[in-house]
């Protein structure tokens, strides 16, 4: 079976939730292999477990940068030791007429340099279990060409770290700024972003799916995010909330569900590996 593309549309509504991007990669567009703790992911290297991160910190592993993408108050109340802080406005284009749009390549380079990231670093990104911003940052970095094998999401986020009794810090680490540049500057990953005409065309194609991954209230129009021109959804789209790929409760709350569970969620809505996926 040929691997299909998955794209995200940021032009439709601001603050699009993009965490399902990594979920689709994890779920199975390639032969599955075992991963911790549940297994079956096609790309298990996209995740790192709390215990693995703790071992890296204790070993003072070089070329590792931990990024906390929560609001400043949450960060200062306690973060993974050594984590630098990035927040949603840092990765948005402040000059765009619509809020929440992706920042430029130059702005992202400036941001990464300001928190001490080097081209050879492996980035471990986390948020809390109730937020999707780790997925959005992952998507933006992947779009601008940051190597996927150097991008990892902390499974379960900060909540999983705390649940294991691991230490947190309240003071930001000392940062040595860098002059960061994407290795293939100007060469973006086009399959990760789509245009409005492409989405309109996809709505009519049987081998394509346009996927809305926002909350149910946003999908129905009951809730309108600040800055959105109006509520509602693109007519004819499929809906799967981004949270559906995460464990809802219990010991592993906030962790990614096993790949087989994710496949079933997608398949039930007609989102299968033989189709191109356009999400927002």
Characterise the protein shown here.
- With 280 residues, the protein is an alpha/beta fold.
- The protein folds into 2 domains: 19-163, Oxidized Rhodanese, domain 1 (3-Layer(aba) Sandwich); 190-279, Rhodanese-like domain (Oxidized Rhodanese, domain 1, 3-Layer(aba) Sandwich), CATH 3.40.250.
- The chain has 9 helices and 9 strands.
- The strands form 2 sheets. The chain has a 5-stranded parallel beta sheet with strand order 2-6-5-3-4.
- Helix 1 packs across helix 9.
- The radius of gyration is 18 Å and the shape is globular.
Topology:
Blueprint: E1 6-8, H1 20-28, E2 47-48, H2 50-58, E3 64-68, H3 72-77, E4 84-85, H4 105-114, E5 122-126, H5 133-143, E6 151-154, H6 157-163, H7 196-202, E7 208-212, H8 216-220, E8 238-239, H9 259-268, E9 276-279
Parallel strand pairs: 1-9, 2-6, 3-4, 3-5, 5-6, 7-8, 7-9
Helix pairs in contact: 1-9
| SS-based class | alpha/beta
The first-level CATH class of the largest domain is given as: Alpha Beta
How many domains? The number is: 2
Per CATH, which architecture of the largest domain?
Answer: 3-Layer(aba) Sandwich
Percent helix, as a range, is 25-40%
CATH superfamily of the largest domain: Rhodanese-like domain
Tell me the overall shape.
globular
Report the order of strands and helices: EHEHEHEHEHEHHEHEHE
Mean pLDDT, nearest integer? 87
State the CATH topology of the largest domain. Answer: Oxidized Rhodanese, domain 1
List the total number of helices.
Answer: 9
Strand order of the largest sheet: 2-6-5-3-4
State the low-pLDDT regions, or none. 11-19, 29-36
């Amino acid at each position: 079976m040929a691997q299909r593309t998955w794209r995200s549309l940021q032009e439709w509504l601001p603050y699009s939730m993009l965490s399902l991007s990594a979920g689709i990669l994890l779920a199975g567009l390639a032969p599955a292999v075992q991963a911790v703790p549940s297994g079956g992911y096609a790309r298990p290297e996209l995740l790192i477990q709390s215990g693995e991160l703790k071992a890296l910190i204790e070993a003072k592993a070089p070329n590792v940068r931990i990024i906390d993408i929560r609001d400043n108050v949450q960060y200062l109340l306690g973060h993974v030791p050594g984590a630098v802080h990035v927040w949603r406005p840092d990765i948005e284009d402040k000059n765009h007429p619509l809020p929440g749009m992706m920042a430029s390549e130059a702005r992202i380079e400036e941001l990464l340099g300001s928190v001490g990231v080097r081209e050879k670093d492996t980035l471990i990104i986390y948020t809390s279990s109730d937020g999707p911003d780790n997925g959005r940052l992952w998507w933006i970095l992947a779009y601008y060409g940051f190597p996927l094998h150097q991008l990892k999401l902390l499974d379960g986020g900060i909540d999983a770290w705390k649940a294991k009794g691991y230490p947190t810090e309240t003071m930001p680490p000392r940062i040595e700024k860098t002059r960061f540049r994407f290795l293939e500057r100007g060469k973006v990953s086009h399959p990760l972003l789509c245009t409005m005409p492409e989405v309109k065309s996809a709505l009519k194609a049987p081998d394509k799916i346009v996927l809305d991954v926002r909350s149910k209230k946003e999908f129905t129009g009951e809730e309108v995010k600040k800055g959105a021109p109006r509520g509602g959804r693109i007519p004819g789209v499929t809906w799967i909330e981004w949270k559906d790929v995460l464990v809802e409760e219990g010991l592993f709350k906030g962790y990614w569900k096993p790949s087989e569970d994710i496949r079933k969620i997608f398949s039930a809505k007609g989102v299968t590996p033989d189709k191109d996926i356009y999400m927002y």
